[in-house]
Amino acid sequence: MSLISFLAVFLIVWWIMLFLSLPVGLRTQDDEGDVTLGTTSSAPRGRHVGRAFLRATILTLIVMGVLYGLTRGLGLGFDDIPNMVPGLD
Hints:
Layout: H1 3-21, H2 29-32, H3 49-73, H4 81-84
Helix pairs in contact: 1-3
């Protein structure tokens, strides 16, 4: 996998992990009991995006490490998927 391909896959996986990790640990204004006038009670309370970025980066590094191990260590690629799962030929 070239560097450009690796970076493209990294960014795609990072965005997926970001959207998966955004609701983790989220506290709403309703949960805190302090609803700001003019907002909905389901609006987030406090800052949590930085932690979501950090979680997404760590999860992406783990996924990319596994992908790197499969492609470099075992020599597998996307073309080998039909051979790994029976019945996809």
